[in-house]
Structure formats: structure tokens, C-alpha cells
Amino acid sequence: MLDQFFPHGLAPYLIGGLLIGVGVALLFITTGRQGGASTFLSTVWSWFLQTPFFQQAKLRESRGWRGVYALGMLSGGLLYAMLGLPMEATHLPVWKFIVGGLMIGFGARLGGGCTSGHGICGMASISGGSILMV
Fold first, then answer.
1. Residue 17: which residues within 8 A CB-CB, separation 6 or more?
2. What is the pLDDT of residue 132?
3. pTM for the structure as a whole
4. CA distance linking residue 112 with residue 42, whole number of Å
5. Which residues does 20 contact at the CB level (< 8 Å), separation at least 6?
6. Where are the alpha helices (DSSP H) in the chain?
7. What is the rounded distance in angstroms from the CA atom of residue 49 to the CA atom of residue 94?
């Protein structure tokens, strides 16, 4: 029955979960901040736009670690591909990815964060708001 939900066995999911947990714990220990991907875009815009929202201290002061955080996510996917681990091809048209990305982005802004912030870090710290958002 578990094969239906875990077609490649449990090990890849357990290893991935452990790596994510260690990563967000290390981020919290070193910065005192919870990780999340949605604020990265606002932080990038803080380099280019001088509007008050993008020039908030919390965005300007977190450019360094947010850049490392984003590079870590990209590097993880690249490493996975380079190791030749199993991947599934998608047959969805590109427009569905674009519409889905816009909807997710809107939801992340509306909810005050994304699933990596609320779902991984917020729920792990038993945040009522994160539990409600997820």
C-alpha cells in the first residue's frame, strides 16, 4: 500500500526531510530567523526599487543570508539532477505553470509567507498563524 504513495521507497523522502530540517535549524541558529522563499523576491527587488516597501530594514539587512538560502535550494535541485537520481517528466503545458506560479505568488503574499516559511518553519515552531495558513 505504501508503494502507491512512495514509488521510490521511503529513503529519499526521509533523507530529504532530514536535510530540510537540518537546513532550517541551522538557519535559525545562525540568524535567529525562519526560512522562507517568498520574501527572497522582495529582497531582490530591494536592490533595484527605492520605494519604501522595498527599502525596509528587514529586507535590506537580510540580503546576504536570503541569497545563500535561495542558492542552496537551487543547488539542491542541481545536485539531485547531477547524481542521476530518479525524476519524473511532466506533460503539463507551460501556461499551467505560469498560472499556477502567479496563483501561488498571490497566495503567499496574501498569507504573509509561503509554504517553506509557514509549512516547514512556522509549523515546526508551533505557530498558530502558520498552522492556520497551511
1. none
2. 81
3. 0.65
4. 12
5. 120
6. 2-5, 11-31, 38-45, 57-60, 63-82, 94-111, 123-124, 128-133
7. 29
Structure confidence by residue, pLDDT tens digits, 72-122: 888 988 998 899 888 888 889 999 999 998 888 788 777 777 777 777 888
Q: What number of CA atoms fall less than 13 Å from residue 117's CA on the CB side?
A: 20
What's the chain's average pLDDT?
84
C-alpha grid cell for residue 4?
A: 502507491
Return d(Cα 77, Cα 70) in angstroms, integer: 11
Give me the residue label for grid cell 525562519: 34
DSSP three-state, residue 12:
helix
Backbone CA torsion sign across 33, 118, 133, 129: negative
Instruction: List pLDDT tens digits, range 93-103.
Output: 999 999 998 88
- What is the C-alpha separation between 42 and 57, in angstroms, rounded? 12
* Whole-number pLDDT of residue 63: 85
> CB–CB of 43/59 below 8 Å?
yes
Joined grid coordinates for residue 17: 526531510
